[in-house]
Design goal:
The complex is a heterodimer of chains A (about 140) and B (about 150). Chain A has about 140 residues and is mainly α. Chain A has five helices and no strands. Classes of the chains: A mainly alpha (about 140), B mainly alpha (about 150). Chains A and B meet through helix 1, helix 2, helix 3 and helix 5 of A and helix 1, helix 2, helix 3 and helix 4 of B.
């Protein structure tokens, strides 16, 4: 961000830094945080997907190999990881819909902040449905 | 409601290269595949992680049961291709934003190679899956397996 490669000999005019982020639509507010969270959740989901394709591929090796690896998904630590994965997926999915709306619908562009909080609300509701059930399965003894 | 002025972009508009704009189609792909993936991923999570005994139900026989049906074979094939390309293209965006110098083509190459390898591997696994790998697979299928 600081490099000015190829900018020639003309010095950039000195612009005093604002005391707090102002002047753009997104910086420092809901728009920026949704963008940050979208990148973090997307990266986390991507690396899980790489592992998940490889572990599923073990069904082609032998049933013992597949069952051995899948059994690790059933211990409590991995169970918390699955909870985190679903937390990330649901946010990424709902915020992705928000991005599409903001792109194509002028009303949504103007109300992107409201839409962020709607995303958070839907996120909470869906996770309230999923997490107790999943954690009971993971921590609830013999299934 | 106050009107917010949006500053003009600091970089010039991207040059149009030919008739086929790859970046435009990448942008469209992310949105179209994203909507389809919501259905595919949420369905996948519901069946594998939420219904029945959740994650505890998953083993070789569970997979064999799903892939006995063309419905889940098509579902999982679409899931594999749409999700991995969506994810790799998203990572490409991050690489273009953050990776400098020689690191950028290196990471782009790694993304391309890993995506091609995993798509090939995953597709082969789905379409060459053999339930008879587990001799204890029950019922009529067991009889078919021993008869071979």
């Amino acid at each position: 961000m600081t490099s000015q490669a190829g900018s020639g000999t003309v010095a950039a005019p000195r612009i005093p830094a604002p005391q707090r982020p102002v002047g753009t639509l997104y910086r420092g507010r809901e728009g920026m945080w949704s963008w940050v969270l979208h990148r973090i959740t997307g990266t986390a989901i991507y690396f899980f997907l790489l592992v998940h394709i490889l572990d599923t591929s073990l069904v082609r090796v032998s049933s013992e190999a597949y069952d051995a690896v899948i059994s690790t998904y059933k211990n409590p630590i991995m169970g918390l990881g699955e909870a985190g994965l679903v937390v990330a997926i649901v946010f990424h999915a709902m915020n992705g819909l928000r991005i599409i709306l903001v792109d194509f619908w002028p009303w949504a562009t103007r109300h992107q902040r409201l839409l962020f909080w709607i995303v958070v609300g839907v996120w909470v509701v869906l996770l309230a449905g999923f997490l107790p059930r999943h954690l009971m399965v993971v921590f609830g003894g013999e299934g | 409601m106050t009107t917010e002025t949006i500053q003009a972009p600091r970089s010039a508009a991207a040059a149009r290269r030919g008739r086929f704009n790859l970046e435009k189609w990448g942008w469209i792909y992310m949105r179209v595949s994203g909507v389809v993936l919501i259905v595919l991923v949420f369905g996948h999570l519901y069946v594998n992680l939420f219904s029945g005994e959740g994650v505890r139900a998953i083993d070789f026989a569970f997979v064999a049961g799903k892939w006995a049906s063309p419905f889940w074979i098509v579902w999982d094939t679409l899931l594999l291709w749409l999700a991995l390309i969506h994810g790799a293209n998203g990572m490409r965006t991050l690489v273009n934003d953050y990776a400098r110098g020689r690191l950028r083509p290196l990471l782009q190459g790694a993304l391309l190679v890993s995506t091609v390898v995993l798509l090939t591997l995953g597709t082969l696994v789905i379409y060459t899956f053999d339930p008879c790998l587990d001799p204890s697979v029950a019922g009529d299928l067991g009889a078919v397996c021993t008869a071979r």
